[in-house]
Design goal:
This protein is α+β, with helices and mostly antiparallel strands and about 80 residues long. The chain is built from 3 helices and 4 strands; from the N terminus they run βαββαβα. It has helices at about 10-25, 40-55, 70, and strands at about 1-10, 30, 35-40, 60-65. It has a 4-stranded antiparallel β-sheet. It is globular, with a radius of gyration of 14 Å. The chain starts with a strand and ends in an 11-residue tail after the last helix.
Amino acid sequence: MDVLLIYDISEDKIRNRIAETCKDFGLHRIQWSAFTGKLNHNLREELMLKISRVLGDSGGNIRLYPICSKDIKLFREINRVGD
């Protein structure tokens, strides 16, 4: 299943470790604090456990949204590179 993971974490070290964890799970960065990719139920649970451990007692907000195949077909993107 496709997923969208977004986060808001103020501490640089933790934010970078979470980004690396997302990459380790095969997710692709689409914005500075947003990743997308395909994860089954077990991998989604494992990813969130690992991210929770990395976050520890630090402040932050992490959201993982599963996206069904019907909705992912509606995906549209505008990506323009300016001068």
